[in-house]
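Practice problem: predict the structure.
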Amino acid sequence: MLLYDLDLLDVVSIFEQFYYGLLPA
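Answer:
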């Protein structure tokens, strides 16, 4: 469970960086 939660947080972090990267400055 803990490993899965950490992996999920990592995926969310990467997704946020990619999503915000698409937004205009």
